[in-house]
Amino acid sequence: MKLFGGGQEMNAVDEEQTAFEIGVVVPKRNVKEEEKTSDCVEVLVKEFRNLGLVVERVHGVVDEFIKLAAPLETLGRAAAELQIKKRTAIGMDLQFEWEEVDAFVRQPDGSVFSWCERFRCYRHLLYGIINKSRSSVTLRFDDKEFCWEVGEYLLQKLESERIVKEVFPLHDEIKRKKLLHTWALHWWDFTNQPIDEIYAYFGAKIAIYFAFLGMYTRWLLFPAAFGLIMHMFDFGSLQLLVLPIFFVCIILWAIMFSQFWKRKNSALLARWQISYPVRTDLGYRQGVGWSSSPSVELAKKWGTDKTKEKEMFQRIEWFGRLMRFRNDAFIIFSIICLQLPFELAYAHIYEVIESDIMKVGLTTIYLFAIQFLTQIGGKISVKLIKYENNENTEKRADSLVYKVFGLYFMQSYIGVFYHALLHRNFSTLRKVLIQRLLVSQVLENLLENILPYLKYSYKKYRVRSKKKREKGSSIGKIQFAYRVEKEYLKPSYSASIGMELEDGLFDDFLEVALQFGMIMMFACAFPLAFAFATLNNITEIRADALKLLAMLRRPTPRFSTTIGAWLNIFQFLIVMSICTNCALLVWLYDEEGKWKIEPGLAAILVMEHVLLLIKFGFSRFVPEEPAWVEANRVKNATNAENMCSKQLLKSISGARTTFGDVKKSQ
C-alpha cells in the first residue's frame, strides 16, 4: 500500500539538468592498452560508471582530473540508502524513497535535493565502492603493485597510497555566472541578495551567514544616520542629554535586531523546508554519522539495562562538562598570564608615542602580530577540544568558536579599555577606535582578497616550473586550458585557525562580531563608528560573494540551521555594551572624578539596570517564530497526525477482518 495516493512512475519525474559537481585528482600518465585492466585509475573510473555516474576525464598540465556528475535517479537511490529524511506534501519528514519521489517537496529552485544532500549522496557513492568479490584484486600504478583486499574500500585505498590526490566539489559554471551577475557584481542593490539561490548553490550555512550580514547591514542604517547627525551638529550643553538618548536608542536597536534575526532565521528554515531542530553534523565534510555519537554507542552497548545505561550517561555527561571546564580554565589562564601583559604593553606604548604616523605603524604591526598569536591559540584549542565529549561536529565547532573568540576579545578590546579606564582620554579613545576600525577592516579586506590570488599564482608557478623541469627549457609558455584544473589550483575556503572543525565562515563571522563589539561597546565615545561599519559591510557583502565565486574553490557544504555560537556571542556583546557605555557616560558626567552619587549619576545607574531588564525580557514580547511559520508547522503536524491515524485505523480494521476470516474457516 502506498502512503500517498496518486503516485506516478519514475519516468514521469522531470529530469534535472546534470552538471559535473565533483572532481577527483590523480597523477597524469600514459597507460598502455594491455595494462588498462589492472590499472588502478582505470578500475576506479570503471567503478564510477558502474554506479551510474557520468564520467569525463580531463588531462591537465601535470595531473588528470576525473569530473563526475550524477543523474537524478542515481542520487535518489543513494539518498534512499542513506535514509535521508525529506519534507513530504503533508508537511511530515519521512525517509526518502526513490519510487515515491513525487510525494516529497522540492527545493525553492525546483530540484529534488539540496546541495548538501547531493554532496552527501556523492560521498556515499564514491567512498562506498568496496571489493565484493571473493578474492583480492591486484592493482597497478606504473611500477607499483598492491592488492585491493576483500571488503576494502577502493577510494580510501587509493588515497592512502597517494594515488588519488584530492576529491573536491566543482563550480557549476552556469549557476556561478548567474550568481556573479545577480549578486557579486550587482552593487546597486546594496544589501539585497538572492538568498534562495545562494542556499541552492552553497548550502544552508553560507546562505544563513549572508542573510545575517544583509539584515545586520540594513539595520545599521538607523544608528549610522543617528551617529552622523550627532557628529555634524554641535549640541553644546545638551550633549550630556543627547548622548544618553543615543545610547538608549542603540541598545534598544541591538536588542530588537537580535530578536528579529531569530524570526528571520526561522522564516528562512520554513522557506527551505528545513526542520528545526535537526542533527547538525550530517552535512559536514568529514561525513561523520549520527551513529558515531557516544550516547548512541552506549545505548547499543547496554541495550535494555536501564540502570547501567543511566549511570553511564550521567558519567559521560559530567566528565565531558569537566573536560570543557578544564579547557576553558586553561584558555582563560593563558589569556591572563600571557596575552594580557602583551596587550597592556602595546596600549602603554601607544599612549606614550606622540607621532600619529608612529601610532598607525605600531597598530599595523600589532594587528599582524595578534593574527599570528591567535592562529597558535586556535590550533591549541583544536587539540584541547579533541578531549571534550561534545555531541557532534557542530558542537565541537561551537566550543572552538567560544575559545578563540575569547582570545580575540582580549586582543581587540583590552587596549581600548586601557585608554577608557585609566586615562579617561576620550580624544585618544576616538583616535584608537578610528585606527582600529579603518586599519583592521582594510587589512582584513586586503588579506581576504589578495592572499587567495597570491596562493593561486604561486601554485600555477610551481606547476609550470615542474613541467619545465620534466620537458626541458625548450618548452613554450604553459597554458591552463581546463577550468577544472584552475579550480584545483585555487585555495580552499578554510579558516585561519585550521580546517579541522571550521571553514572560512569562522573568519567572516569573527570579523562581523569584532566590528559589532567595537561600535557597540564604545558607542557613546564615537557615534560615527556606525557609519564606518555600514559602508564597510556594504562592501563586505560583495567582496565575500566575489571571493566565494571567483577566487576560491566551491566550499564543502555544511548543514546548519542557525549561526550557532555566534548568536550567543552577539548577545554577550550587547550586555557588555550596556555596562561599558554606562561607564563612559559616568566619566563624561563626572569630569572631576569625585564619584558622587548625584541625580545624574543615579539616573545612569538606574538606566543600566532598566536596559538589562529590557534585554532579558524583550524576548517575551517578540516571539522567535513568525505567526505564519507557527501556523504552517501546526497545520503540517495536524495533517500528518490525521494521515497516520487514518492509515493506522485501516491497518487495524484489515487485521481484524483477516483474523475473523481465519476464525470462521476454522
TrEMBL record:
Compartment annotation: Membrane
Keywords attached to this entry: Membrane, Transmembrane, Transmembrane helix
Ranges that cross the membrane: 206-229, 241-261, 329-349, 361-380, 400-421, 512-538, 559-589, 601-618
Origin organism lineage: Eukaryota, Viridiplantae, Streptophyta, Embryophyta, Tracheophyta
Source organism (scientific name): Malus baccata
Full protein name: Anoctamin transmembrane domain-containing protein
Limits of the Anoctamin transmembrane domain: 198-634
Highest taxon of source: Eukaryota
GO terms of molecular function: chloride channel activity
Topological category with respect to the lipid bilayer: Multi-pass membrane protein
Entry GO CC: membrane
InterPro entries: Anoctamin (IPR007632), Anoctamin_TM (IPR049452)
Pfam family, one: Anoctamin
